[in-house]
Structure formats: structure tokens, C-alpha cells
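User: Batch of two.

Assistant: Item 1 of 2:
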Amino acid sequence: MTTPTPGQPLGMSDFFALEAGEYLERLDALVQPAEGLGQNADEFVRLARALRGAALMGNQPAIARSASGLETLARAVREGRRPWDQNIRQIAIRAVDDLKIFVRRAATWTEADTAKAEALAGQLEQLAGQPSTPVRAAEPPGLDAGARAFVAREGAAIAGSLERAAQALRADPLAHDPLQHVLKALQPLRGLAALNDLPPLPDLLEGIERVIADLARASTPAPQNVGELFSAAGAAIAQAAREVAERGRPDPESPAFRNFASQLLKFMESDADIVPITSLYHDDAGPHVVHRGTPGPHPATLGRVELVSHGEHLRQAADSIERAPSTTQRELRAHTLAGTFRALEDAGAGTLADAVGRFAQRAREAVATGAAVRDPATFAAELRRAGDLLAQSASGDETALAGRLDEITAALTGLAGGAAPAATTPVVPMQARTPEAPAPPHPAPRTAVTADVEDVPETPDITGSWVTYHRMVVTGVGPASLEALIGAPSHDTAGPPVPLSEPPASVVDVRTLLYRGGRALARAQELRRAAKGASGEELRALVEEVCDLVELALEPTAPAPSGA
């Protein structure tokens, strides 16, 4: 029997090989004696039945089919319908040996192996006096009429919930309650044991759950196509439910599934990346970086155990992408890896963590651009290599592992057709990129904007205040000056300070710009209308401003100062 490599975690196939190997060794010892079974007929049946159960749990239906034939023969011997002679003994020994070979070939199973397992099962059942009953390919094992009706009913409920969520998200992109209703509707169908026999329904449901998780974490409104994404998911599930009720399995290449995969790709592409600071530079000689900023804090570094777990997950994902029976299913499985890559991008600080982040960034880009689906074999091979490296991170050298992981990143860069990501990028504050605007040497000339402003009335709001200020600038009030307002000498001009009691013609009394009397009441009415659609801190700020306006409304309008 094959044994797992020391130091690596056991997978489902490893557990199956160990358990099935133990049952087969005990069966071999049971059927070898020439004197016959004796009192061990019940043990023969029990071990054959246990082998069949292990194959079913290990998702090996062909091996389970052969084990079922051996169990049928064991029951016939125990019940006396078939005597235990040398002919039956030799057939039982060869059947156990064939089953050992099947278990060893489980990891590299082929259609030829399936045919051999079916032939062995038929031979054993005929010896037991029962006709061979091969499993029909059109209907998954165990999916009877009741299961079909269950899938049809729950699929229709999920489709309705998705359509309601799509309508709610179109109306309010920040709505989260409909998403919780969708998750609740998915639970009954996710608990169906035969769901994995109905591809690509499991991948479709997992894609929906990933999208909901991303929307729940986001603090910004949902992307524009999220309504179409949920509508496409509802249409795909509704069609799959009808096909399961009618034929026993959905069509993985139906237009509804293809449409959902396309909408899922658009949703992934809408995830905005960080904009490089260099893209904000002016196209000149500089200087571009005035002063360097302080890098933000790194997220908590993933521990060795977490990296090993992610490595095992990447290896399983590579196997699932390679074994996907249809293009749509392969595309859905690749898209659901977006959450894994996003978590690896925030692996933290350190040589290996930085290399993991670069790999995850390129892997996510390969999925988003469709390169992973166009060349699934290469993409799966690189994922498996990365998974093997991360699985060794518990005891390997970080520098060496990071170097080998960068080689995989370069291969993914070639697959996606992009440039390799830089290892480090200096952080520059946004304020340093803002050019300093020189002060105008003289009042702004009269332009077409000035002529347009002359036709705008001075309303009691921010627009009216801006129009008033602009007209004063045009007439020569000059640039805003705090020194002139408080009576201090300006740094740019010499002369004695201007007293507030005798303001020059170019200075406007700030009291004339305040809301008083009727203007304060008019402003309060505007805030009252705005408060009807506000809540939280915004509503509290509006209430405070209204309270201030009430005091100002009781005061008479301030007279214009002389000379203004």
C-alpha cells in the first residue's frame, strides 16, 4: 500500500488508502486458508461492507462498485447459496488482489480502471447468482425522485432570494440584510450529501458565498454589476434545479452558468487596486518627491501553521482545477480562489511574507484576466509548486523559500502577460504630490466665467456666498488676507496696520456674511428639508446648526459698514 510522505499532512486520499489497505489485508488473510472460511463467513461480509463504505467516503465510486460485488459474493457464501470451494476461493483471492491494485491507482485513476472495476463487480455478482446492475451514468448514485424534488424546491427558493437581493442592491448598494437572507436560503442545499455529484452547482454556491463575504467586509457601496451578478446566479440555479428534476443532473455548459461566470469575473475586476504614487507625478523634470512619508503598519504576519494550511489548500485547488470536467466549472473554481489570494496578499512583513504577497497578487491577476482558464494546466502546476513551498515553510529557510516563490511569481507574470511586481515601493504622502500654486501678481482678468457669474443671483446659500466673493475679487478686493482682517501688517506689503474701525474700501466686514434675520430663517428651512433624509452624525450636525441659526434669526440684520 502507498503511504503518505513523512512530515506532510494527511489528505482524504491518504486516509482512504490507509483504511482500505487495512481492510484488504484482513480480507487477504481471511480467504487464503485452504480449509475454508469456517466460522468467519460473517467477518467476510463485514469486511467487504466496510471496504465499500470506505470507498464511498473517499469518493471512489468505481472501487466501491467492485467492493459491492465482493460483498454480494460474501453474502451468498454466508447464506449457503454459493458453496465455498477452490474455484470460489481462487476468485476471491484474485478479487482482493485486484482491489489492492485499484486502491494504489486511486490517485491516478483512468477510464480503463473504471472499466476493469465494473467488469470485476459484474463477475462477482454473477457468481453470487445476481444479475449485474451497473450504475447509470445519467443519474448520480443515490439521487432518487425525492432528492430531485428537494433540489428543485430549494433551488427555486434560492433563485427567488437572489432575485430579491438583486433588486434591493440596485436600489441601495449598501443594503446587507438581503445578503443574509441569501445565505440562509443556501444552507439546506449546501447540506445535501449528493451535491458534489451535480456539477457545477457546488462551485456556483461557493461563488455566491464568496461574493457575499466580500460585500459584507466592504465599507464602500457595492459595484455596479452586483445586481446583474445576483440575477445571473438566480437564473443559473433556477435552470439547474429544473434540469435536475427532469434529467437528474444540470448541464455545466448551459448559457446561464456561462453568464454567471462572466458576471463573477466583472465583479472581481471591479476590486480596485492600489494606485502607484508614480502615476500621480507631473510629466516634467521634478522634483517629484518633496519628502518621504512614513510607511503604514503591516498587518499581522501569518504564522508558519497558517502558511502550511494555505499551501495545502493551494494544492487541493490545483487538483480541483485540473480535474474540472467542464470549462465553466474550471472557471468558477478559479474565481473562488480570489479570497485565498487576497488573504495571502496581507501575509504581513518579512522576507517570505513579502514574497507570498507578490505571488498572491500575480495569481489573482491571472484569474481576473482569464489567463488561469485559458491555460489551466500551467496555472494549476504553478499553484501546486507554490503549495509545496508553503507546506515546507514550517521548517525551511525563509530566504531560500522566498527566492523559489519569486520564480513561481515570474512564471505567473508571463502567464498573465504583465510586468513583475516590484519588491518594495517607497511610500510618499499625497500632500507631497500637490504642486504649490503661485500667487497671482494682479487681480484675475475678466474671463467668460466672470460674465457667467454676473447672471447668477446672490442666493442665501453657499452658491450665493461664492458669487458675492467672486464679484468682489473682480472689482479689486484682492486675495484673501488674514493680516488685513485682524489689522496686522502683511508680509508682502509694508506700512502701518489698518485699524478695524476704519476698514479700507477693499475690506469687507465679515459680519455682513453671517446669516441674520430673514436669511437665517431661510437657511433653517433649507436645513429642515435636508434633515429629512439624514441620520446619525450628519443629522446631529444639522440640528446644531439650526440651533445656532435660531439665535441669529432673533438678531437684526447687521448694517453694511461705511465705505464698504
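Item 2 of 2:
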Amino acid sequence: MKRFIILGGALTFVIVCAAVFVSLFNKPTEGDYRLARGRAQVDTENYLAALQTLRDIPDAQKGGPEAHSYLGAAYLKLHLYKAAIQEFEEAIKQRPRGSDPWIGLASSYIELGNAQKAVDEAKHATEIEKRSVEAWIALGRAQWQLQNLDPAEKAALKARELEPDNSAVSDLLLHVYFDQNQADKFLAELDRNSKPSKPAQDLAVRFFLAHGQFARAYDFKIRYEREALNRSVLEAQLALKREPSRMELVPALVKNLVKLGRSDEAIHAAGAANGPSTLDLELGKAYWMTGRKDDAVQAYRRASATLIHKLSAEVALAAITGDIKHWEEAYRAERIEQDYFILARIEDLLSKASPLVLGFIYRYAGIYEPAFYNKAAEEALKALNDDPKNFDALMTIGTAYQRLGRLPDATRYIELARQIYPTRGEPPSRLASLGLLVEQKDPQKIVQLMETAVKLEPNHAGYLYNLGWTYDQLGETAKATDLYQRAIKASPLTFEAMNNLALIYSNSHQPDRALPLLEQAMRTDPENEAVYANAANYYVHQRDWKQALQNYDRALQINPAGALAAVEKGRIYLEQGETDNAVDSLSHALEIDAHSFDAYMLLSSAYEKMGHIKEAIAAVEEAQRIRSGAPEVKAALERLNSRQKDSK
């Protein structure tokens, strides 16, 4: 018995030693750790760090398929599509039966707009891994991009079989059903998801608009904001209770209460602020909701008189009073804005309005959904059949065709309006604008038309600005300055005139005259992103980077989809040597607009400063894709390729 115990102990000792011996050989290497870390950084969206980690993998493992796949994923997320494709293709060479690189290739080609190539690569992925949800989604997206809607739907439904609650599948199906104009399927898919993504919400709003359901579009637009709105209202109410003097909180409070449908509370809150003019539009909405139409009319008239919200106020007045003159005034507004509350309120007019009013309504709806310009033209043409000289019908048709890109048709109707109404300034002004859109421009004729518009209506700020801008482009600064000054005197809303005049003053070493113009614009319309972008441009010229960044941040806060502000932030960070911040800002710009030439060129400079020459070249190659003949692209590639060659 003792002999068996000794033998068993010896055997155990041998097994343990063998296990230790094997583990020594199978111990994860430094490269394995770095590969795992790189993957984790990609998964946590820390793409720059992932690039650095994956570059530092020892040469023996650097060329492995996993490393190439993770590098490809990082490049894809950094919008360096050609570099991503190269990495994915290398991974496929080494391991053709892996589905992830094929999915990466498909995603890259989708971003580049090469949908057929994306379909081919995604099909490979689905053949290799038939239960890959990502592969079927990629195939569906590529088919949808090609407008092969039936195959796109089949691919999405296959992905749903594998993962029923995948939100990307729902988004894809909504886009397919929207394009197929399958209302029942679209609504069923929308009802299936209690928390649709923001793109899905936006698509649903477009769906309801396209079907003339303006009120439902408005309801859907604010439905998913309600939780945040209620929280914001409560915070503002508590703050005002503690500090009643904080009147700066009232405008946002009133606006949020109106969105929530709490009209009586909105009226009460606005009254506590002694009726500042900035609240008149929101007060008009609150009175309208409570049935106090006379009070609503007075509030909207005040809002229109301040000009900032003239378009919305006049449309509301047209709906309440039925007076067509308010529609005419609406289209003399200088500032175009969207207000889904106002749009929702005019839905009831669609069933009883005359063709001319329907033309006005659809012209207004075209601001939200351009397809409505077709209906605007159709209704205005009906009105023109009854009254061939109707000015509003002619201009509505001209506007609609211009927005639809039918420039010869637009020119024909606006020219007819000019001949019938030779004393009105709008037709020559509009013809000049059309002249700027055609390929064969006639500068002399454009200037003559603009001068005619100004002579006919010498106090129209828009006409004054347009002529001033034209002279500015021609280098006639003195004439431009005079016209900009007249435009600003005519209207406080001519922000571009203020900006251009401020630039003229700044370039002529008169900054003390420039800044007050920009500050005036910000006081006049504090919710307009353009005024902050203009101020930021001024501070850039003064090399006041802190103020410039603050104003660009404010512009992005108002409009998160403003790619230009993000690009300019990246430019400032680059100027300051903050390359990490520059890359972040420029990557954000490319998420908004993947065809931003300036973003890619600046991104290349940032990578070059960081010593990432390969990525710098990749960014320039993306810029080359957008603007192939640009001389700065050729110069950058020559310089960077030389640096890369020298480093080897």
C-alpha cells in the first residue's frame, strides 16, 4: 500500500512538473498583452492609443491577422478609409476565413460610397460566418445604399432572426421602408422600438412630414425630449424660487413649458419677467394653445415687429386670422427658421385652403422637407391658371423651382414677374441670385440686377447686403463698406453684413470698430449660431484663441451638426500645439461631414506633428479623394513620403 502511495505521489509530481513546463512555453507574450490592450482600446473608442499600442507589438507578431484587423478598425473609426482597407486586406491575405476583416472592408466601402464593392465584401462575410449579425447588417446597409431595397430588407430580417432586439437592424429597416414608401411596415417597425435612436427619430419626423401629418411630426420630435425638458423646468423653477432675480432663466423656462404643453404655467412665468420681447413668440404659442386668440395675435405681432422670429410669427398670424397678407409678409422675413409648433398648427388648413394659400403652406413646409417644393409649385400653378399675373404665385413657383434645382424654369417665372411688376425689387434680386448658381456666370449682369433691386427698394437690408458682398468679392472695399453700413442701419439682423464689415475693419487695423458690430449681433439674436461663428472668426484674426474657442463652442452647442465650427476649432488647437485636441475636434468634424477637405488636411498636419507619418499620409490621401487636383495635396504627399523614406 505504501508503495502505491509513493508511486501516486511521484506520478502527481511528474504531471505538475509537466504542466509547469508547458505553461512556461504557452505563457502569453508581451505581444499578446499588447494585442489584447489594443483591442480593448478599440472597443472603448480610444483609437489613437490603440494605434500606438498596436504599433509597439514586437515584429514577430505585428504582421498577424488580428493586429491588422484591429488597426483597420481604428483607422475606420478615425475616417482614414484607405488605410483601413489596406489593413483589412492584409488580414484577409493571412486568414481568408475570418469574417471580421470582410465586415471591416464592407463598412469602409460603405463610407466611401462604393456600395457595390461593399455588397461583394459583405457577402463574403455572410458566407464565412452565417450567424454574424454584423455581417448581415453590413450587407443590408450596402444593398440599401445601392437602393436594392428588397435584398436590403431580407438581409436586415436575417440579422433580426439572429438578434431580435438589435437597434441597428431596426434603423436599417426603417430606412428601407421609408424609401419603399411602405407606411404600414414603417409604422409597425417604429412601434416595435420604445427607444429609437436619434437618426431613427429624425427619419420618423421626415416620414410624418412627407405624409402631411405635421402635428404628429411635432409630437414625435419632442416625445423623447420630455424627460430632459421636465428636469430642466424643475431645475429652473427651483432656482427662481431661491433667487427670484435670475431673470436670465425665464426665456428657456417658458420655451420648455410650451414644448411640454403647460401653457398656463408658461404664461405665468413669462409675466414674472415683465414681458421681454424675446418671449413674444412663445407667449403667442401659449395663448394659442389656451384658445386666447386675440392675445395670441397681439403677441405674434410684437414678435414679428422685432424681426428675429418674423417668419414664424407671420405664418402663425396667417393661420389664425386667415389674412393672406401675413403670408406675403412671412416671405419678406430675413431670417429663415424652423418651428415645428407653428408647422403643426397649420396642418388643419391643408383641407380647406385655396391653391394660392396651399402654395404658401407647402413653400413653408419645404423649409422642413424639400420635397414639399414640388407641391408648392403645383398649387401655385393652379393659382396662376386663375390669375396669370399673380405676383405671389409667380414668385412661389420661382422659389420652388430654384430650391429643386430647376434653374431655367425658376428663371423663366421670375423673369415673367419682373416684366409684369417692373417696380418691385424682389424679381431682379432673385434673378441675380440665380445668376450666381449657373456655371456660366455674367458678373456685369449680376451687378446690374442687384443695383436695380437696391434702386427699387433702397431700404431692403437683404438687397443692400447682396450688392455689398458682390462689390466685396470684386475688391471694391469702399463701395462694399457703404452698402454693409446701410444694410446694418436698415435691419439689426444682417449678421453677415456685420461680420464682413467687421473683417474689413479688422483688416484695416480698426478692431475697435469691428468688435461692437459682432457684440450687437450676439445681443440681437443670442440663439443664432452664425453670430458666434462670426465672432469666433474675428477673434481668430486677433489671435485671441481662448475667445475664439469659446464662441465656436457656443456655435456647436446651438447646432451640433456644424462641421465648420469643429474644423476651425481643430485649426486653433493645431496652432496652439494641442495635437490630441486637434485630432478629436477634426475627427468630430468628419463624423458630421466625411467630405471636408480642410478637416483632412488639418488632420494630416496634426498627425505629422505627432510623428505619425503613416497616418498623416493616410489623411492627405483622403483629402486627395475629395479634391484630387489640389496643389497642396501634391505638395503634402511629396513632403510626407520623403519623410517616411528618410525614417526608414
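The longest helix spans residues 2-26.
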